[in-house]
Every structure is written in structure tokens, then in C-alpha cells.
């Protein structure tokens, strides 16, 4: 298939042997996640192993679109393997990272790298086009992720000046480049096998979920470096450029036209292809900064800053400490200001103080940088840090308390606190070092798990992993996460909330009605298209077959288009697009158009979703062998007992989603809702039936797998005594 | 407790432990909080019955969430300034 480099690199670290796998042998799985799951299935004989077991396979797979100008789909790689972060079982799981690594891999002639085994000493993998070397990394062990990359760059480019042409010894096509190698590496957290350790590339591209940094640490794998001078062969370059220009012209936000958009909501909330809000950082941006994009992307959702602090961090990286930085540095600033504002009227004073209250220091930037350097997952800190602070405020945690902890909480919000916290995690230093393996495990070690999951102060609702969009409101997010292996982190339906709610907060009418937005979404949802009830978030509907279809569609769509073809979550799906007069986004048309131009393969949107279903089934087969059973598929207690945003009950609402009330479509407030445990269990039956999985166990049934051309998978499940069966 | 809202991260709960934190929270980009509960907290925890009474009046107004946030922010900021000046 066009777009593929044609070969996958398999490295066995135990015996230090490199093997080439022809990509064509796995062409039906297309790329990314599909390739990774299929390789894992074939190469890992015992799938019940722990993530730290040497026979665990870690795959890093590109897509046919990687390294091309398919915008928003040119740079991500999918990382998979058995993770060490989730509980009670370390599921076969996934993560994803952007930057330059995937494109460089393709330019070096590889569709992916798969690593198995365990080296007997620290090593790094050096890929220069076709040449692959396993090199000693004893001198790199102990370095942080930035130091490691700098050292590897130095070793690869020799005495050349970065940015100048240099030669490297390779038998491949072309041996000269101006580019630095793309390096994916672990930091001290990974070396110390912290279960929340991530893989880092460049300054702030991170593969966080799953704890793959710790898995690399166990394998003694410090880094993979790749530099390539080839290119990607495209079926129809003209069609690809036309597709890119078509997308940009018709669906992107054009700054000059912003005033024409009669949108009463702040459109910076927009998700999808035309999302205006870049860079995607949530702290106060430094004065001097510019957007920075992954290779080939039209968008720049990261930043490069004048100070060099906070480079490339985005999203949660920029969120988890900036709020505490803001609040902890406000008080002293107010006092200083008061003295100089005596002659200003009250209104002016209030306004000025308001600005000062928002004062942010460089603590947030420096904290994010340190987190990237040590190689720690920001998602874990996002909900773990408030939990730690709550325990301190409750008098449970601290010096001489029930949970001995030497962190300086009087410096909370300052860089000094963050530095000690992150070092405690990465190096397992001092008291309360249990948090190195995540806050869920720490709570268990402290004997607080049941109580804190019950009250909801420990917001880890699924598989021992931190919350994100709340399962009691954003149903497809919660259900998708618990039916899978991790926080899905897929924002395809969040526009339903963001398009309407800000308008309602301001006492205005949303851009389109609840009924219309449901219709727009439903149009795209092949093979369940035009059934608006899939988008009915009312309590009466969330346990229905319609909601099962919504979750199934989402799982299939993302498994293929976003995780295998690797369209980026920042720009896809583009379902509702306020830049368009009809508000219809380009999803459904854009994905197959780009795919066809690159690969030459005429695959429809529905065909892609069906391949996604196949991949999703293979994943469930793996989870089934690992020990998954429907009886263990449930949320943490607080999801069933503590109403969502209960503080808002009986007051103005915060979170609106479309739904029907007395037969009429409305934006319905989600506050006060808990999930009903019994009804959710009944909903699982709808979902299993829809997927062709046993309603008794949740295991795939032979008929389903054979219909998907996966008879060997059915045979393996049968052999393991875990094939799904109909209830007699 | 309030909620900080961001596109990518959704509604993040924020536990508020002091008056300064409460005022600071109201200056967030999208602070969402139950006004009646906040007014009651000012009364019972902060012991400021006068301010709480005013806040309850605002909480009961027929106004948008945004407008109420702005009014709460103004009143609580003013009180914070008075507190600091009194020291």
C-alpha cells in the first residue's frame, strides 16, 4: 500500500537481534493501533504476563499518512503494550505521541518499531536509515530526558553544528541531512520503574498513559533515536494537496472572517479542524512565544517561548500546577498594590487588583519542564496533586500525621514544593514515596482507597486511573473508558457541551438548538446515521440501546481513524463546525479523502469504522485473556453515590448537554446526576449484544470474530477457555 | 468547591480553603460555582454575615451565571481590600 515504508523493525533486547517484518503481512490492519494490536497478538504468546515481564512487547507504530502533508494526521505515533499503571490488572493499553519521531521513522524507511526482551545493561537504539545499532547507555543512565537527547544528538552528528549539513554512515538512500535525530527517551522516573513514568520526545511531546516509561526502564531501554533521509511514496500527490487546500479553505478558522460568524459563544472553545485556540496552553502565555507544530500539521498547538521555559508543554502539562501558582502568588502582590492605589476609585482598584490576583510566576513553566525532564505523566498529577493537598488540609497527611509526608505544604504553589514532589516521585525519595506508583496505589497502601473513592476526593473513576470529562455527565467518555482500558481522552463529543453551555452562562441562546446539534452529529455516525437519539443525554436515555450505539460508534471510529490512521485528537473529529454556514464539519468526507490520496485505496468512512470494530474486537480478545470479565467492569463508588457537581443542585447550572424532556429536545443540566449501578449493568448487556460479545462474560463470541475474519483469535480464546457464549 | 473549565480538560473541581482563594478563583477564565453555597460559606465559615447577606441577594437575582460571577467578584474583592487595609 502507498504510504507504507514497507517494513517494521523488531528488536529483541535479550539476544540483541534485529528482525525485519514486512508491513504487507499486516496490511489489513493498516497502521498505528491496528498494527500494534496485531503484532502484540502474534508475538506475545503469554498475554497474561505483567507489564514488567521481559516478554512484554512495546510497539511504536506510524500510519500510512505519517510523514505526508495529510494535515493533522502527519506526525503521531501509537505506543502500545501491557501497561503498569492500571488496576486491578495492567491492561494491554495505548498511548500516543506527536512531534518529529513518527515522521523521522518513516523517512528512515520504517513503519514502526517493536521492542521485546530485556537488555542485560542499559542500552539505546540508534537508527540511521536502514542501519540499526544497539548501543551501550551506561553513560546516559541517570540523565534527564533533555540531557539524554542532547547527548545522543552529539553522538550522532559528531562535530557538526546543529542545523548544518552533516553526513552519517548509512547504506540507505541519501546520507546527508540538516536535521537532528528524533529521540524518544525515558527519564529518571522510568529508570526507577515508577508506574506513572512517561516517554518524552524533544522538549514536551509525551507518551504518558500506561506507564510505558517504567516498562522501558525494566527493559534497560533508555532511548530510541532515529534519523532518516528518505521520503514517503504517495499514490496521488496532487489529490493530497487539493485535499489539504480544500480542508483549509472550507473548514479552518479564517481570522479575517471571525466577525462574520454569528456565534454568541466564544468560538475559541471550538473543537475540530477549525479550532481557533492555538497554542493549546492553559497557563498565562509568556510575553514572547510562538506556535509550534508537529511535522506537517497546519496547526501549532504547542509553544516555543522567548524564555525557553515551558517549551512544547500543552494541555494538562500546562494546567496541573498553574492554578496553584496563580493563587499562591496573589496575596503578597495585593498587599504591595494596596499601598500604591490609595487615590484610585473603588472600581479602578477592584479592576487592578483583579489583574494582580491573576499574577502567575514562572513556577508553572519550570514545574512542567521538570516533569518532562524527569519523565512523569502529567495526567496523574492533575488529579493526584489536589488529592494530596486535600489529605494535608484534612490533617491526615503531613509531618507527624497518619500518613507521614515531608513535603513543604507551606510552599504549595511555589516551584520549591513542585521540585520536591517531582523528585519524590521520580527517585522514590523520603516519606510518602508510594506516590511514585500513582495516587491510586498510594491510597491503597495508606489504607484509604475505599473511603476516598467513596467520598470522591480521590477522583480515579476507572481502572485506577485519573478522571477527565466526568462519566456522570459526558456519558460516552465515561462508558468508553470503562469498556476499554484507560481514560479515552477523545474530545469528539465535547463540542456538544462547549457550544451550548457558555452561551447559557451568559443568558444567551446557543448557536443552534439541541435538536439541531443532535441531528448534525447523528448524520455522521455511520452505520447508525440519522438516529438523533444517540445524542440524547437525558437520564432516561443513558442506559438505552441508543447510548450503546453511541459508545460503539465512538470506539470503532477512534480505533481506526484516530488511533490507526492517526488523525490527531486536537483537530478530529470535525463534526460540528461553527465556521460553516450549515455548521457541518468535514468528518466523514475528509478522513477517507486524505487516506485515498495517500494510499490509493478506496476506503469509505464506514469501511474505516468497520476496520475499527475489528481492531476493537482484537483488543477485547487480549483483555479477555488477561482476565477481563463483565463483573469487574464498573466505576469507582463515587460515580454511583456522589451527584455530579452536587454543589449546583437547585441553582444555576454549569454543564448542559442535548437531551429530550417530555418528548422535546432541550439543553439539559447534568448537575446532580449519579449513575445507577444496576441500570449501568443492564446497559452493559445492551453494549455486549451490540458488539456480539457474550452478555454473561463480555468475552467476544466465535461468530463475531469469524464474521470479522479472526478465526485464529476465536481459536485462541477457545483454547484459553475464554470464548464468549450465548446464554442458554 | 468550584469548577475550573477548559476545553481539553473539562470541568476540574477546585477545593477552596480560604477567602483569598475564593476571590482568586472568581478571577479564573471560566469559574463555575454555586452562588448560594458560596454565600452561606462566607457566613458560616468566614463569619462575615454582612457580606453574606449581600451575596445572598445577588445569588437570588434573576441574572445569568456570568453576571452573578462578576457581581460576586466585585463584592468579594472589595471585602478583601477592606480586610487588608484594616491590618
Plain-language structure description:
The complex is a heterodimer of chains A (728) and B (87). Chain A is an alpha+beta fold and 728 residues long. Chain A has three domains: 7-227, 4-Layer Sandwich (Aldehyde Ferredoxin Oxidoreductase,  A, domain 1); 292-455, Aldehyde Ferredoxin Oxidoreductase Protein, subunit A, domain 2 (Orthogonal Bundle); 475-719, Aldehyde Ferredoxin Oxidoreductase Protein, subunit A, domain 3, CATH 1.10.599. Chain A is 35% helix and 12% strand. Chain A is built from 24 helices and 20 strands. Chain A has a six-stranded mixed β-sheet, sandwiched between helices. In chain A, strands 8-7-14-11-12-13 form a six-stranded mixed β-sheet. With 87 residues, chain B is α+β, with helices and mostly antiparallel strands. Chain B has one domain (2-86). In chain B, 60% of the residues lie in helices and 14% in strands. Chain B is built from four helices and three strands, in the order ββαβααα. A three-stranded antiparallel β-sheet of chain B has the order 2-1-3, with no helix packed on it. In chain B, α1 crosses α4. The longest helix of chain B is centred in the C-terminal third of the chain and has 22 residues, at 65-86. The relative contact order of chain B is 0.15. The chains are: A alpha+beta (728), B alpha+beta (87). Chains A and B meet through α7, α8, α9, α11 and α16 of A and β1, β2, α1, α2 and α4 of B.
